[in-house]
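Q: Sequence in, structure out?
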Amino acid sequence: MDVLLLRLDPELEPPSYARPGDAGADLRARTEVRLEPGERALIPTGVALALPEGYAGFVHPRSGLAAKHGLTIVNAPGTVDAGYRGEILVNLLNTDRSEAFTIHRGDRIAQLVVQAVSAVQFREVTCLPESVRGTSGHGDSGGFGAR
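A: Exactly. Output:
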């Protein structure tokens, strides 16, 4: 599938897949930013997209940055709607309690996963059909309960 890409910074490498079969294309930082412990910042990526109708882009954290440095995305995954034409920004958060982290221009900071999405019609009803799960949620299925 072709996705129209506008490079807002022609010197910056566009999104790319690190390996064949990867789900996420790497997004790169357009600017250098130092994140102190607990600090967050919107990091520009230097690209804008025109996703086809019926698709959305989902911006996910990079697992290596999360595991090694405590960097994550505040609103993970961030959503890029098909109608959005602005620069993709990544809302990074440094969760490390003591170490600052510097993001350098060109660093891979997030992954963009493009997926088909369904538009639905919400139909109001007075009750919902029964299911095996019912209304249980937020940890009700077990695993971390009282032992």
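The domain at 4-116 is CATH 2.70.40.10 (Deoxyuridine 5'-Triphosphate Nucleotidohydrolase; Chain A).
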